[in-house]
Design goal:
The chain is α+β, with helices and mostly antiparallel strands and 463 residues long. 35% of the residues lie in helices and 21% in strands. It is built from 13 helices and 18 strands. Strands 1-2-6-3-7-17 form a 6-stranded mixed sheet, sandwiched between helices. A 4-stranded antiparallel sheet has the order 11-13-9-14. The chain is globular.
């Protein structure tokens, strides 16, 4: 296996520069003005697939952004690994908080990454992590024969809900048939302590619009005589949590599968420094649902958060206006037992029920996905564990992730196969935030670990 490390060491500058080329493309799926850039990123990935010598490389059109597919079938009797990732990225707002252009990648040393980290939108989520798989395949194909058949499905809509990927999967079950799905879009405990994500929270994402008067009004002429939509919306949002930080939507917790005390103890035994957690995000005190630790709050408990709120005049200077409308984008992270479509309905019914009759309420559903829990006794988990041990000299710790990858639960439902979540990001990487970054060593160690996974999966599959 030393040839893997040697190849990475000899080619690491090229690997990074090739990743930089992809990171320079502003493939923001949420904004239509970047549609051409999203397609440009898809085309670049297809070029990489062709250069690797993969077969059936194609850009698969959808009603939204395209899916890039490729495969290499060595032997029908060999196990097949389906690699999933995404090339789209989050918007960069607020742009003024970035130290440099978010689409002009550069390497800078940080407190955690003394060897340097790659700064750019998408560096960790998910271009950097997805790109590790391409380089792992390069290592194998340049030095050996693939131990497993491989299929790659890289989408351009993960950050906006994967709506069109769902239809693609349902319509291409034979094409996508596999023995294991491999994904790198999660994280690990620290640079030196590896972990394998065995659970993801689900997601419900909605937008609330409150309308009062039929136009913006002069706050002097009308203030105190009509309901202000911003005031109303703020009061409604405040009521969504009680004094114990529990969500007040009726029926919200009805189907939650509670974790046993033994499993909670194991979860809380994972290495986690609450002081480092607070320091990394500039807080003096953590917050959350009473009766649960921070590590539990961010992984096995539901959450409801306002992601954006606006209305009225927010420009420079003063404008004494009483707004006609107020808006809020709200996400709910869900845990096993909760169905995102049911939660959407519960939220919608509740928000309309608590609104006063002085305003009108409109709720728009954006996207969502189911929670996911993976077993730890599968061949895939064992192969991943062996690969991590080789690279980090430590057995990886099973963890639950607070984030969501909406399509993962659907994979199991439609393709009848398990997913292994081999992530290499860190909580401090600022994904979805200004100055997103990804450690150079995490990137290179990830390539090595993924390469070894292919060999171990084949060995264990044949045992």
């Amino acid at each position: 296996m030393s040839k893997i490390k040697n190849y990475i060491e000899s080619n690491k500058e090229r690997f990074i520069e090739e990743l930089f080329e992809l990171l320079r493309i502003p493939s923001i799926s949420a904004k239509s003005e970047f549609d051409n850039d999203v397609r440009k990123a898809a085309q670049l990935l297809k070029t990489h697939f062709l250069n690797l010598g993969l077969d059936n490389c194609e850009i698969c059109e959808t009603e939204g952004h395209p899916i890039v597919y490729a495969e290499k079938i060595i032997d029908e009797s060999f196990p097949t690994i389906l690699i999933y990732g995404h090339y789209d990225v989050q918007p960069v707002d607020p742009i003024e908080l970035w130290d440099q252009d978010p689409f002009d990648p550069y390497i800078k040393k940080t407190k955690i990454h003394a060897e340097g980290a790659i700064f750019a939108r998408g560096a960790c989520d998910d271009k950097g992590q997805m790109f590790m798989h391409l380089k792992a395949l390069e290592i194998i194909l340049k030095n050996d024969t693939l131990p497993c058949n491989v299929k790659l499905m890289i989408e351009g809509e993960e950050e906006v809900g994967s709506d069109n990927l769902e239809l693609f999967v349902k319509n291409n079950k034979k094409k996508l048939s596999n023995d294991i799905i491999l994904v790198s879009d999660t994280g690990m405990i620290s640079k030196t302590i590896p972990s394998i994500t065995t659970g993801l929270r689900g997601l419900s994402y909605l937008e609330v619009e409150i309308t009062g008067p039929n136009r913006d009004l002069h706050s002097g002429h009308y203030g105190g005589t009509v309901a202000n939509p911003i005031n109303v919306l703020s009061k409604m949002i405040n009521s969504l949590h009680d004094e114990n930080k529990k969500i007040t939507i009726p029926g919200f917790y009805d189907n939650v599968i509670e974790m046993s005390e033994d499993d909670r103890t194991k979860l809380n035994s994972s290495p986690f420094d609450i002081n480092e957690f607070k320091e990394s995000i500039g807080l003096q005190k953590e917050d959350g649902e009473i009766g649960f630790s921070t590590i539990e709050r961010q992984s096995i408990r539901p959450a409801l958060d306002v992601n954006g709120i606006w209305g009225g005049y927010t420009g420079e200077g003063a404008k004494t206006v009483l707004p006609s409308k107020a808006h809020a984008k709200i996400s709910m992270r869900l845990v096993p037992g909760q169905d995102w479509k049911r939660i959407n309905k519960l939220f919608t019914d509740h928000i309309k029920d608590i609104a006063p009759n002085t305003v009108k309420v409109k709720v728009t559903e954006h996207h969502g996905g189911q929670p996911y829990v993976a077993p730890t006794d599968t061949i895939g988990f064992k192969a991943a564990s062996k690969a991590y041990q080789d690279v980090f000299n430590l057995e990886p710790i099973p963890t639950r992730d607070g984030g969501s990858i909406p399509i993962i639960a659907l994979f199991e439902q439609e393709l009848k196969s398990k997913t292994i979540l081999m992530g290499f990001g860190l909580d401090s990487d600022a994904i979805h935030s200004p100055n997103e970054h990804y450690g150079v060593s995490n990137f290179l160690n990830g390539i090595e670990t993924i390469t070894k996974f292919h060999y171990y999966f084949k060995d264990l599959f044949n045992d």
